[in-house]
Amino acid sequence: MNYFQSLTLAQTLASMKLKSEASRLVLSYLWWVIEPMLFVAMFYFVFEVLLGSGRGDFIVFLMVGKIPFLWFIKTINSSANALISGKGIMGQRDFPKHIFPYVVVEENTQKQMVVFLFMVIALIAKGYEPSFHWLYFLLIVAVNFLLMLPLAMLAALVVVYVRDLRMVISLATTFLMFSSGLFWDVRSLEAGAQHLLLTYNPMAFLLDAYRQVLMFSAVPDIAHLGWILLGSLVALFFMHFLYSVQSKFIARKVLS
Amino acid sequence: MNSPISSAAQDNLNASVAVFAENLSVTYATRTSLLGRFRHSALKDISFSINKGETFGVMGRNGCGKSTLLRILAGIYKHDKGKLQFAGINNRSLLALGLGFDGELSGRDNALVSLMLQGIKKKEAKKLIPEIQEFSELGDFFDQPVRTYSSGMRSRLGFSVGVKGETDLLLIDEVLSVGDQHFKKKAEDVLLQRINGEQTVVFVSHSAGQVKKLCKRAIWIEQGTVAASGNTRRVAKKYQDFMDSL
């Protein structure tokens, strides 16, 4: 099976899984949009109503950060189970194991496209005027997607070797939630801390970039995006190497 | 998918040999505590060879290492020690009762995924689905999630999908032991067709009777080692005597 065949298979499996998940829930596909909106409402209640953020556009600020972040966090957390839950299919024959984390990323991304569409509609309804700069949004989404792929592969792989790492992964994503400027603005930090965070936490940079583009119609830092893209591609290449070397060992660990 | 065979090794292979295994060993290590590990040798120095077009039998009781051996032959696992060579075999298929499916997906979707895993293109795989649906006799259940299936229905689906694809080496694990009489008969007929043709087959069962019916040569595996090999009748006799003595 070559890489393109594996992509088709991952795509097919993801669509099947989405269909089956939707058929099990009463509100079915509506959940894709309801869930992120509920999260935004929850955060709004805590950080605006209870704590008072002091910024007029806080609900928009929250939405534009929380929605892409949810995509990221849910993808990484569910990737941790990707290989282990692939047990059934893995017993059939030898095939590239990267399909499993790919399916998770694909599944969450398909949902996310619908959510993003709603987000953009909500922005327009709120009075934000679409501009050509919004096209940068697609670029940021693409980089965000490529950043998730190797991380999802890593999360799935480490759990195969040490199951306990699942806890560490969910702790790490929670830490990321608090350190990526989700309910506070990275730009309000003092220069040193801001630089540190934007340099070493790609999610902090990406969330800020989403906001810059959609809320302020600004051009994102393209060079920085380029570095994240390059780093992601190198990591992706490395993860593929690990997966191909470890393929049969993964099967043994998961099946026995 | 198979490792390329060096020319020197190729010379070792008799022209009629399809699979050659020498001193295959597999050890599982399971973590029991922070530093504690439980080691278990599933296979110890297993050697055999299978001729092209032959139906080769493997018998042994539960937990003797049969499934591990099949998974190694299917290329799902890699052995820890020993040598395994294939000649003229590019595609291997495992047909097992507990053949894994994704419980949340329908029989139709699972069948499609299984075919695609065999390297069949999606378009062509879709064309094969109606035949599989018919052969499996699952009726309306074919579009229901596999988790709602009985074990008999699962094995019917597994068998129907498994015999569909073209393969150079067919690995069969206990498939004839479950299912109602009618389906069992149908499955046996299909298998016999393949077995009597050019197909190289490895047939694994805990039942000496079944192996005797289908294979001329066989091995008996007990606790991960080859306890007897050669003519099926002789091997089966030893196996049965051993089972009776337990």
Automatic annotation (TrEMBL), chain A:
Keywords: Capsule biogenesis/degradation, Cell membrane, Membrane, Polysaccharide transport, Sugar transport, Transmembrane, Transmembrane helix, Transport. It is found in: Cell inner membrane; Cell membrane. It comes from the Bacteria. This is Transport permease protein. Its main location: membrane. GO terms for biological process: lipopolysaccharide transport; polysaccharide transport. Residues 27-246 form the ABC transmembrane type-2 domain. Belongs to the ABC-2 integral membrane protein family. The chain crosses the membrane at residues 25-46, 58-77, 112-128, 134-160, 167-184, 222-243. GO terms for cellular component: ATP-binding cassette (ABC) transporter complex. It is a multi-pass membrane protein. GO terms for molecular function: ABC-type transporter activity. InterPro entries: ABC2_TM, ABC2_TM_bact-type, ABC_2_transport.
TrEMBL record, chain B:
It comes from the Bacteria. It holds the Pfam family ABC_tran. InterPro entries: AAA+_ATPase, ABC_transporter-like_ATP-bd, ABC_transporter-like_CS, ABC_transpr_TagH-like, Bact_Polysacc_Export_ATP-bd, P-loop_NTPase. Residues 19-246 form the ABC transporter domain. CDD domains: ABC_KpsT_Wzt. Keywords: ATP-binding, Nucleotide-binding, Transport. The keyword ATP-binding applies. One of its GO terms (molecular function) is ATP hydrolysis activity. GO terms for cellular component: membrane. Belongs to the ABC transporter superfamily. This is Lipopolysaccharide transport system ATP-binding protein.
